[in-house]
């Protein structure tokens, strides 16, 4: 895919959604960090349901740490892998309290040192909480990048590297959100809605889905 096509794609995505953001519900960088940590292999909807119960009771590192693993589990047990996530969340709170003065660290290295926080989670926090032009590659963004030809790659690291290289600078801050939403609602996994896609004429996916027959 050439640079002109990429530019037009992101122009259209921006025109459709000028101020995109995550669908996870949060009010502070810490709430976002915990929500993203809980969202691994889970839907944003399921995480939001859990945090709506949790955050009115405990939404700071100290308050969640004080719950302990057994106290946290009842709030998040509807989410997959909740036992592991509870353990990682409590340990993350401990490290934030002991090593970072109760504040979410603002460097990739410090974020990735937290239990359960990998590169993708760190990128989301850096981008969404702190306004850095990082691009977190999840399954949706990996699929969209490869299917459309925007930034094809065999693994998430290659796709991230290509996106950072190819996405025009003016769009980098919001690219993560546009691509994930496009993958979640239009360029879906099994049968992409090519017939209802604003960038279909620019997309290099060959087996485009035709308009479904009306019942």
UniProtKB/TrEMBL annotation:
Molecular function terms, GO-annotated: 4 iron, 4 sulfur cluster binding; class I DNA-(apurinic or apyrimidinic site) endonuclease activity; DNA binding; DNA N-glycosylase activity; metal ion binding
Keywords carried by this UniProt record: 4Fe-4S, DNA damage, DNA repair, DNA-binding, Endonuclease, Glycosidase, Hydrolase, Iron, Iron-sulfur, Lyase, Metal-binding, Nuclease
Free-text cofactor note: Binds 1 [4Fe-4S] cluster.
Keyword Iron recorded: yes
Coiled coil start-end: none
Gene3D superfamilies the record matches: Helix-hairpin-Helix base-excision DNA repair enzymes (C-terminal) (1.10.1670.10), Hypothetical protein, domain 2 (1.10.340.30)
Domain of life: Bacteria
Cofactor(s) it depends on: [4Fe-4S] cluster
Reaction catalysis annotation: 2'-deoxyribonucleotide-(2'-deoxyribose 5'-phosphate)-2'-deoxyribonucleotide-DNA = a 3'-end 2'-deoxyribonucleotide-(2,3-dehydro-2,3-deoxyribose 5'-phosphate)-DNA + a 5'-end 5'-phospho-2'-deoxyribonucleoside-DNA + H(+)
CDD domains: ENDO3c
Binding residues for [4Fe-4S] cluster: 187, 194, 197, 203
Record has 4Fe-4S as a keyword: yes
GO biological process: base-excision repair, AP site formation
TM annotation in the entry: none
EC number: 4.2.99.18
Domain HhH-GPD per the UniProt entry, residue ranges: 38-185
Role description: DNA repair enzyme that has both DNA N-glycosylase activity and AP-lyase activity. The DNA N-glycosylase activity releases various damaged pyrimidines from DNA by cleaving the N-glycosidic bond, leaving an AP (apurinic/apyrimidinic) site. The AP-lyase activity cleaves the phosphodiester bond 3' to the AP site by a beta-elimination, leaving a 3'-terminal unsaturated sugar and a product with a terminal 5'-phosphate.
Family label: Belongs to the Nth/MutY family.
HAMAP family in the record: Nth
Annotated protein name in UniProt: Endonuclease III
UniProt source species: Undibacterium baiyunense
């Amino acid at each position: 895919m050439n640079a002109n096509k990429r530019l037009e794609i992101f122009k259209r995505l921006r025109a459709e959604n000028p101020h995109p953001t995550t669908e996870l519900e949060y009010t502070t960088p810490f709430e976002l960090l915990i929500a993203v940590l809980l969202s691994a292999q889970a839907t944003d909807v399921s995480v939001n349901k859990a945090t709506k119960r949790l955050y009115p009771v405990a939404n700071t590192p100290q308050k969640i740490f004080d719950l302990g693993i057994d106290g946290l589990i009842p709030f998040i047990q509807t989410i997959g892998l909740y036992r592991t996530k509870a353990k990682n969340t409590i340990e993350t709170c401990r490290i934030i309290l002991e090593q970072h003065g109760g504040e979410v660290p603002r460097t990739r290295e410090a974020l990735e040192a937290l239990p359960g926080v990998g590169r993708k989670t760190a990128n989301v926090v850096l981008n969404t909480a702190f306004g850095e032009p990082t691009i977190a590659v999840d399954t949706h963004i990996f699929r969209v990048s490869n299917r459309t030809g925007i930034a094809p790659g065999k693994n998430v690291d290659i796709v991230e590297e290509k996106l950072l290289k190819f996405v025009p600078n003016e769009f980098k801050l919001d690219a993560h959100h546009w691509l994930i939403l496009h993958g979640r609602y239009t360029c879906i996994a099994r049968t992409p809605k090519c017939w209802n896609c604003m960038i279909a004429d620019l997309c290099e996916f060959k087996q485009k889905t035709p308009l479904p027959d009306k019942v």
